[in-house]
Structure formats: structure tokens, C-alpha cells
Write a structure and sequence with these properties.
The complex is a heterodimer. Chain A is α/β, with parallel strands linked by helices. Helix content of chain A is about 35%, strand content about 30%. Chain A folds into 2 domains: about 210 residues, P-loop containing nucleotide triphosphate hydrolases (Rossmann fold, 3-Layer(aba) Sandwich), CATH 3.40.50; about 80 residues, Alpha-Beta Plaits, CATH 3.30.70.100. In chain A, the strands form 3 sheets. In chain A, strands 6-7-8-3-9-10 form a 6-stranded mixed beta sheet, with helices on both faces. In chain A, strands 2-1-4-5 form a 4-stranded antiparallel beta sheet, covered by helices on one side. The two termini of chain A are about 30 Å apart. Chain B has one domain. Chain B is built from 11 helices and no strands. The relative contact order of chain B is 0.14. By secondary structure, chain B is an all-alpha fold. The chains are: A alpha/beta, B mainly alpha. Chains A and B meet through helix 2 and helix 3 of A and helix 1 and helix 5 of B.
């Protein structure tokens, strides 16, 4: 659905994004993660054909952003950071205008608008002027605007920014409910959001791609905690011997038989741990690698270099 | 193409009637044109009274030259005062509220955006002109009015207004602040009037150049009921040029990011 190759964008002399490449397949919900100023919005603006890149190539919905931007624009729904709302208009007439703008046939504008209003739970506000709505509802109108023409691809730039927790919850539910019908690329700097809504993440930092994988793979490959379940006599001694493995940073006794072992890095340390248990004549019941939280992965990728 | 222009223009017209500034502009236009009409009416009746005196009995009072053509010139002045209010927000507001992002990421071209906006303001302006046309109908109860020259005069007003609108939209496209756009447009229109009046003092070459450039000057022959093709061509090319600049200014905003 999206294929980005070596995309670079300079603002003056500073590179907002610097040779990034990634891919999004049909039907995926992809989280675009990064600290503020990492180049998320810039990338999204390029993919929606709002900004031209300095160099590189991107293909969206099978069309090149250089040659066929009109075809792309027909197929995408885009919610920018600030939802593009005409504040003096009423919700319904605004959405009808957007439907027309996106090329929905005149005869279907009404039904498409009703559907979008329903999906975003705006029924009781459809005759309100947009400036009278709260921030959360404005954001919903923004979402309705993005999905009104049933686009193949939805690009959402920080859809939950500035909302209160209940509103965030609602918007997330809305996004997950859209899964399957649309391919979705959403940017955020709120990590739980990604683990809750996305299957795949692209982590971007200082204009470069730091990681691009499924949430599961990432959290597993960055995991540094083992749970060890053993039965034996001298637990004290086992703990002190475990400490002697160079990669181990801490060992905590959770229950009588369970130990939590944190590592600095993982170099097939599982083998050393199990060997250590055998040597001390412990019965090894279980040795399991815990998945890291996305937050740990993110901090590791973005803040340690 | 036409469909998209229609979509933009009709939304724009609907939005106009939701903005207070539109009503201010309309009220101001009607007030000022009514006031000027009233002033002309007084002096016209004075002349009529004189013409009825026995010593002037050879004098034929012509409503068209004595009343309607100065009125049309007055209207061209009033129009250049209120049009900046109508054009100021056209693109500046889109940029400020980042609704331009919606337009730029929708399957429509910059030409369609610009022409749609242009037709929206033009429609509103035509509506205002139509209201003032009723004044000429009113005056026809008091004497013989030749409607063809009046109609030509209104053609001139329409073309001049359209040119000012396209200029105003261009100025609006260069800034994010509609106040700045309004002031800029007002200054430009004011200069067009200034160069018209100082031109004769600058010698023959300058006079002819400045008078040609001054958009508001070309309306005078229309107001006398003279339909000259070269004036029509002047206006049409000025409109196309300004719209072309506007479209390019939108395009360059995009490249600057």
C-alpha cells in the first residue's frame, strides 16, 4: 500500500527526514512512532502529496507521488495534526462538502455523510456549528472527514493529541473498529496507543528509521528479562552465582521458586542461566523470556545510541 | 473540472453568509452607494428645475449623461472600497486554519481552487451590482432612460470588479493574515485611483502608461455607454494574469513547505 524508498526532505539546510525507507502492506494498521520533531508529520505530508520530497521515491496505493498524485489523493483519507475544519460551517454541511471534494458521486454524498457521522458517533451534533464543539468532537469531525469517501488508506497524524483520557479511549476504539476495512498509518508519541491499536510499528528518530517490525517481534527481540522457575535447596547460592554471569544486572526472588533475572544484554544468556541452575543441582521447571514493553524498546532505540 | 469549481464556489458562497465581515461589506456598499445616489439625485433635480425655466427651454436634460454615468463611476469607487473585505480571507484564512491541507490533499487542482474562489466572490459582487441596478429603474420613472448605455456601464463595473477581485485573491494568497491581506489590497486599489488622478500631471508618455495600467480608469468609457473591445481585452487579460499568479503563489507555498 505504501512503499517508501530513500525519502529525504530538507527544510533549508536541515534534513527533516533523511533517506528513510519502509513499507506498509494492505490491511495493516501501522503505528508511526517517534519523539516530537522526528519527521513523522513531514513523512505523512509527503505521502499525502501535500509536500514534495527533496529526493527519493514513494509509492502510495500503487501510484507514484510524483506522477500520479491525483490518483493517490482519490484513494487516501488524511487527518493532519490540526484538523482542517471550516469552523463556521455545520458538521453535516462540512462533511458533505468534503465528500464532494473527494469526488463522491453527487447521488451518494448524503448516504456517505450519514455513514461517517454514524461511525464517528456525531449523530447528536450534526447540526452544530463546528466552532461550538469541544476539542474531542472536533477531532471526531476530523476523523469523519478523513474516512468519508471510504478511502483505501487512512493517514492519521496524532489522532489523539490534546484529548482527555475518555476521548482518547473513544478515538482508539474508533480506530480499532476501522481495522480490516482500511489500511491505516497513524503517528503518535504515545506508546500505549500503538501497542493497543497497531500490529506493526515504524520507529523514526532524527529523520531516520530506527526500527520497522511487528510489535510482537520488536518487544521480543528487545526483551531483557527472564523468569526462572526452579526447585532446590540453596537459593541464596544460586542467586549469587547468577550474579556472576557478566550479562546479568539484577536477580530478584519473586516467590519461593521464581526468580526474575534482568540482563544488560542478551548473548544466549539463557544457556548460562540454565547451566548455572543445573550446576547447583536445582530442578529447572521453567525458563521464559519476558516480552519487553514497547516503551522499553522505544527508549532503547531512540535515546541510547 | 467544472464540477470541482462548482463545489468550491458554492461552499464559499454559503460560507460568506456565515461571516459577519460579509454583512459589513454589503451594508457599507449599499449605504455608500445609496448616499451617492441621493447626492446625485439632488443635483439632478436642481438641473431639471433649471431646465424648466423659460430661458433654458432649448436645454434637453439627458438622464444618462447627467445622472447615470456619474453614478456608475461612483459605484466603481465604492466597489474598490468593499472588495478588499470580501477577498481578504479567500486564501489567507485557508492557510491560517490549515484547511488548505484539506484542499491540497483532495483530488482537485490548484486552478480549480483559485477559479472556484474567484467565482464565489464574483457572484456576491454581481448580486450587489444587481441591487444597485434597481436604482436606474427607479430613476426611469422621472425621465427617459436609455437602458443600453446603462447596461454597458454595468458591464464595465462587472469587468473592473472581476479584475479587482482577482488581484485581491492574489494578495490574499501571499499571506496567512487576512487583516494584512485586506490592508495590502486596499492600498493597491487606492494606488490605482491615485495614479489615475496624478497621471495627467506627469507628461504624455507617463500619462498614457499609467492610465492604461490603472484598472479603475478603463471603466470610464464603459460608464459613458461606450463598449470598446480593447477595454474588455484589457480586463480579461488582467484577470487571467492575476489568477495565474495566484495559482503559482499557491504552488510555491507548497514547495516552500
Amino acid at each position: 500500500m505504501i512503499k517508501v524508498q530513500n525519502l529525504t526532505k530538507f527544510y533549508g539546510k536541515t534534513a527533516a527526514i533523511d533517506g528513510i525507507s519502509f513499507q506498509v502492506n494492505k490491511g495493516e494498521i501501522v503505528g508511526f512512532l517517534g519523539p516530537n520533531g522526528a519527521g513523522k508529520s513531514t513523512t505523512m505530508k509527503i505521502l499525502t502529496c501535500f509536500l514534495p520530497p527533496t529526493s527519493g521515491e514513494a509509492e502510495v496505493c500503487g501510484f507514484s507521488i510524483f506522477q500520479n498524485s491525483m490518483e493517490i489523493k482519490k484513494r487516501i483519507g488524511y487527518l493532519p495534526e490540526n484538523p482542517p475544519l471550516y469552523k463556521e460551517m455545520k458538521v453535516r454541511s462540512y462533511l458533505e462538502f468534503v465528500a464532494n471534494l473527494k469526488g463522491v458521486p453527487f447521488s451518494q454524498v448524503k448516504s456517505f455523510t450519514n455513514e461517517a457521522i454514524e461511525k464517528c458517533n456525531l449523530q447528536s451534533y450534526s447540526e452544530f456549528e463546528i466552532f461550538k464543539l469541544s476539542k474531542g468532537y472536533k477531532q471526531r469531525v476530523g476523523l469523519a472527514q478523513a474516512l468519508i469517501h471510504k478511502p483505501e488508506l487512512l493517514i492519521l497524524d496524532e489522532p489523539t493529541s490534546g484529548l482527555d483520557p475518555t476521548q482518547i479511549h473513544e478515538v482508539r476504539n474508533l480506530i480499532t473498529s476501522l481495522a480490516g476495512k482500511h489500511t491505516i498509518l497513524l503517528s503518535t508519541h504515545i506508546l500505549p496507543e500503538v501497542s493497543m491499536t497497531c500490529e506493526k510499528v515504524v520507529i523514526i528518530n532524527k529523520g531516520k528509521i530506527a526500527a520497522c517490525d511487528s510489535v510482537e517481534n520488536l518487544t521480543r527481540s528487545f526483551a531483557l528479562t527472564y523468569t526462572l522457575k526452579v526447585r532446590g535447596e540453596n537459593t541464596e547460592k544460586l542467586i549469587s552465582e547468577l550474579h556472576q554471569i557478566p550479562e546479568v544486572s539484577s536477580v530478584d526472588l519473586e516467590t519461593n521458586e521464581t526468580l526474575k533475572i534482568k540482563l544488560k544484554e542478551d548473548r544466549e544468556t539463557a544457556v548460562k542461566i540454565s547451566n548455572c541452575a543445573f550446576k547447583n543441582e536445582f530442578l529447572l521447571l521453567e525458563l521464559k523470556k519476558e516480552a519487553a514493553s514497547l516503551e522499553e524498546v522505544f527508549i532503547k532505540l531512540v535515546f541510547t545510541e | 473540472m467544472l464540477k470541482n469549481i462548482y463545489i468550491i464556489a458554492s461552499k464559499e458562497i454559503k460560507s460568506y453568509f456565515l461571516l459577519p465581515s460579509t454583512y459589513v461589506a454589503i451594508a457599507f456598499f449599499l449605504l455608500l452607494s445609496g448616499y451617492l445616489f441621493n447626492g446625485l439625485l439632488h443635483s439632478f433635480f436642481k438641473t431639471m428645475a433649471l431646465a424648466n425655466l423659460p430661458e433654458y427651454d432649448s436645454l434637453v436634460v439627458n438622464i444618462n449623461t447627467l445622472f447615470l454615468s456619474p453614478f456608475i463611476l461612483n459605484l466603481s469607487f465604492v466597489a474598490s472600497i468593499i472588495l478588499p473585505i470580501l477577498t481578504m480571507g479567500t486564501l489567507a484564512e485557508e492557510r491560517k486554519l490549515s484547511t488548505i491541507e484539506l484542499l491540497f490533499t483532495s483530488p482537485i487542482t490548484n486552478w480549480e481552487i483559485v477559479i472556484g474562489k474567484f467565482f464565489a466572490v464574483l457572484t456576491l459582487y454581481t448580486f450587489l451590482l444587481t441591487i444597485t441596478f434597481s436604482y436606474s429603474v427607479f430613476i426611469s420613472f422621472y425621465g427617459e432612460v436609455e437602458f443600453l448605455p446603462v447596461f454597458v456601464g454595468y458591464c464595465g463595473l462587472f469587468l473592473m470588479g472581476a479584475t479587482l477581485i482577482s488581484l485581491g485573491i492574489f494578495i490574499s494568497s501571499t499571506t496567512e493574515s487576512q487583516i494584512l491581506a485586506a490592508i495590502g489590497t486596499f492600498v493597491v486599489f487606492f494606488l490605482l485611483w491615485v495614479i489615475k488622478s496624478i497621471a495627467p500631471a506627469l507628461g504624455e508618455t507617463w500619462e498614457s502608461i499609467l492610465l492604461y495600467v490603472s484598472v479603475v480608469n478603463h471603466v470610464s468609457s464603459f460608464s459613458r455607454g461606450i463598449f470598446e473591445l480593447r477595454n474588455v481585452i484589457f480586463y480579461l487579460s488582467a484577470i487571467s494574469f492575476a489568477l495565474f499568479l495566484t495559482r503559482n503563489s499557491l504552488e510555491s507555498n507548497k514547495w516552500k513547505g
